[in-house]
Amino acid sequence: MEAINHVAGRAIPFGRKNVDTDVIIPAHWLKTITREGLGKGAFEAVKKEPDNVFTDPEYAGAPILIAGDNFGCGSSREHAAWALLDMGVKCVIAPSFSDIFSGNAFKNGILTVALPQEAIDRLMEVAKSDPIDIDLETQSVTTPFQDRFSFEIDPFRKHCLENGLDEVGLTMAQDAAISAHEAKAKAELPFLARTLATAA
Amino acid sequence: MTKNPRTLYQKIWDAHVVDTRDDGTSLIYIDRHLVHEVTSPQAFEGLRAAGRKVRRPDLTLAVPDHNLPTTARKDAAGHVLPIADPESATQLAALRKNAPEFGIRYIDATDREQGILHVVGPEQGFSLPGATIVCGDSHTACHGGVGALAFGIGTTEVEHVLATQTLLLKQSKTMEVRVEGKLGAGVTPKDVILHVIGVIGTAGGTGHVIEYRGNVFEEMSVEGRLTVCNMSIEGGARAGLVAPDETTFAYLKGRPYAPTGEDWDKAVAWWKSLATDEGATFDKSVAIRAEDIQPTVTWGTSPEDTSAIGGVVPAPEDFADPSKREAVKVSLEYMGLTPGTRLTDVEVQNVFIGSCTNSRIEDIRAACEVLKGRHKAAGVKWAIVVPGSGLVKEQAEAEGLDKIIIEAGLEWREPGCSACLAMNPDKVPAGERCASTSNRNFTGRQGPGSRTHLMSPAMAAAAAVTGKLTDVRELVG
User: Fold this and answer.
1) CATH 3.20.19.10 occupies which residues in chain A?
2) Which of A33, A69, A154 lies at the smallest CB-CB distance from B91?
3) How far A21 CA sits from the closest chain B CA (Å)?
4) CATH fold for the domain made of A6-165
5) Is B272 exposed, middle or buried (0-12, 13-18, 19+ CB in 10 A)?
6) A134-145, pLDDT tens digit by residue?
7) How large is the ipTM?
8) Please, what CATH class does the domain formed by B297-474 belong to?
9) Residue A152 burial by CB count (10 A; 0-12/13-18/19+): exposed, middle or buried?
């Protein structure tokens, strides 16, 4: 996974609330067996609307997306995160995110930044003409006009994002603890530990 | 272990903590993992690339469901028919190859146990109370109906569970949705959950796990509880559950993977101890009177856009929040609806009875109660009933329900996700309406330009015979 410390550049001022993952990537794009190439299908329906921000050349290749409340709600499809990555988005800023989406984004090295609506309104304004700067180290979003907004991030997630750490590998290193839990569960809750192999 | 009063969710959580970090993240052990063809190929690809194995193939079950056509799977001579769509065929073939390669039990599209994962899990006794269950699908919350802590995960998490049988999670907040009183005639579990989502909104449960409490859920069948928990995600909650009780135990006993003998007695004793302790508190509580719930339908493109069937299409101005007002405007335009129109005047051209929300035997029975002796209206072009599994199909046929469906002019299909999500041939044409028992009415969900109205199986059957959204109480007294 690519390490992420700093994201700077133009931001797509989308701003819409309750953007579900069907909007981010419609179901018919889910039929892939690899992770690449989904950027083409990202926001497919929105791209057909007149004057939309996704086909506006002004924002082509922008690494930041600004959205409204509850971004990424609906289906758990991780393709939503892959589609954003494939279109070049490395950071999404919104007042709130769905739990599943923010998890998927994190696991793919996309930074999700939650800021109050007033900050979003201001950034939407700035994004129309100027770049935005996000610094993970200092947990701040700044603009060329001296705006500065601080954001919270889980320390573990911050550490993983900054170092591009693979979660599966990190957990596999805890094999002893997992095995100990399995042994305990087998003794105390045998009906849960009971396997398909023995049940068949 | 703490003596403080705990909720059902907290007890299941505590029993599965492998390790807790300083920042409050826990490594949680996963008891059951369900795998399907859409969200797993990239996970297996990742394992292969890193030279990793599946840690507990014996706790993992793979079943194809999303992409499968629901038409006949074999020809008259018994030969398996090819899948026409090449991309679907590729995903289905990948699962058929990946599962045995990693030692995972695989139920094939042509096996009688095949079905939608969220129907198969409980039906096989694979999903058990107190278990942690995950699947790369947000409707995994469904299994909360048997008292499991079940939730959807993304593909990277699928890979994480396959490799380590654990997930890194932060404990969620707890939310109580209490429904008490007496449900009126014609009001089903689907109406209850649609009403609940209408009250709490699609973000009402974000960050929370919902426990459904009160006499209405206590008196509900396991099938009904599965329907309710299924749509927890539509209320923003990653998981929803109902405490396991005698109804749950009776449902599970004797199922293929349910515990037996001494194991069963031990299991029941533990399951009984899981109920939320007296004095335990929830971070959020919502109370609803059963008497306030009517047969409910959706009119917009968000599951929170619900109304009692006796209502009218609302106007954007009816909403205080400016952003919701804008969303309603866009959604009414998409749905082709005019504010003030009586919902019972809205005509439908398609009917879909099925999906992980409503494709169990009780759902088919409820639809047939309305369909019996009636016929599909002339304006309804396409109406299908899709059982949730091969076993539901067998049961329905044993009860003669397939005949009622076919005589009413509806199609009786093979099990799968079908018209819920436009990933297989079952789609609703652009600009047409569908009375649907599925769980999402998002823009384009049932096909580009499709217009979805969510409702119960009985209400969908009523719409099939009248050709309009209909109050089922007018047909079945």
Assistant:
1) 6-165
2) A33
3) 10
4) Aconitase; domain 4 (3.20.19)
5) middle
6) 999 999 999 999
7) 0.92
8) alpha beta
9) exposed
